[in-house]
Amino acid sequence: MRFLNVHHARETVSRLVHALDGEHTTPDTLPAAYRRIITGMRPIAPPAVGVRVSFLDDPWGRNLVKNETFANIFEGLADTFEDQRITWGRDFKASMVYTHDVIPDLGALVDLVVTDTVMFSSANKGGGSASHLPGLISMSPGDDWQVHDFAESLVHETVHLNVFLADMAYRLYTRPTKELEADEYRVVSAVKFGQMRPLDKAFHSAVVAPPLMFMQARRGETELVDKFRASLRECTDGLLDKLEHFTPYGQVLVHELRTFTDDYDMELVAESISSERFAHWDLTPAA
């Protein structure tokens, strides 16, 4: 599952950098080059290093609310008190360490693609990311969230960002995503039981499941596998039925995801994150 693979993400970002400004990156220059190219895609530049944590009254918070970017989590929006900011900031930093401890290459993927986190106090809990805002994620933490909950939300949104980058570099779909909202392109969601979703959103609902199942398995839990085993399989059935609407690259991702749903092998997830066999995608057009 190369949408989880840190080596593939590095290759993808390197190709985007070269396409946008002609630079040939090295491992040492890649992180800064990534942040440089996404500066032109966003209203607010990323920090030079690390992940900047913002809140409602910061520039990113005001921008997202003004543009209703994550309207689904803005219900009951309220100011975040100082003690809550300190607690969330501490837990978020701990979640990054936790992710590195679970599997270092998953932490490295987070380090590469995430530059900003905006935290909101709202009635709806969860996270958000957007294809037009590379590097940025939002979080509305639950009242009882522990460090591993922050980590799972972080990884969830990291995978979305990584797939958005892959779509920029290789294209996933044969049609613009706006067209995929039509009924003929809809597929049942992997997480919203029985709900038909546009093809791209159904695909995104599925790709975040393997790493979260893996993280839970590492701490001895099976809640997500038990809850979503059938719906994830049903979603991949639908994706396969619509396979002609994916590009060759997108088709590979769908098939790799489907392989995971055959037996939910967590070693495959670990291999997908770290193995160099998932690193390369040949851009040479077929003869």
Structure description:
- The chain starts with 5 loop residues before the first helix and ends in a 13-residue tail after the last helix.
- Helix content is 53%, strand content 8%.
- It has helices at 6-21, 30-39, 59-66, 82-102, 104-113, 147-170, 199-207, 209-218, 223-241, 248-263, 266-274, and strands spanning 52-54, 116-119, 126-129, 136-140, 186-188, 196-198.
- The strands form 2 sheets. The protein has a 4-stranded mixed beta sheet with strand order 1-2-4-3, sandwiched between helices. Strands 5-6 form a two-stranded antiparallel sheet.
- It folds into 2 domains: 1-170, no CATH class; 173-276, no CATH class.
- Helix 1 (6-21) packs across helix 2 (30-39) and helix 7 runs antiparallel to helix 9 (223-241).
- A hairpin with a 7-residue loop joins strand 5 (186-188) and strand 6 (196-198).
- The chain has 287 residues and is of the alpha/beta class.
- The protein contains 11 helices and 6 strands.
- The radius of gyration is 18 Å and the shape is globular.
